[in-house]
Amino acid sequence: MLTIRLSRVGRTKQPFYRIIISEKTKDTWGDSLEILGSYNPRSKEFVAKKERIAHWLSKGAQTSATIHNLFIKQGLITGKPVKVVSITKKRKEAMAKKAAAKNPTPAPEAVVEPTVETPVAPATPAEEVKE
Question: Has residue 130 got a pLDDT over 60?
Answer without folding.
Answer: no
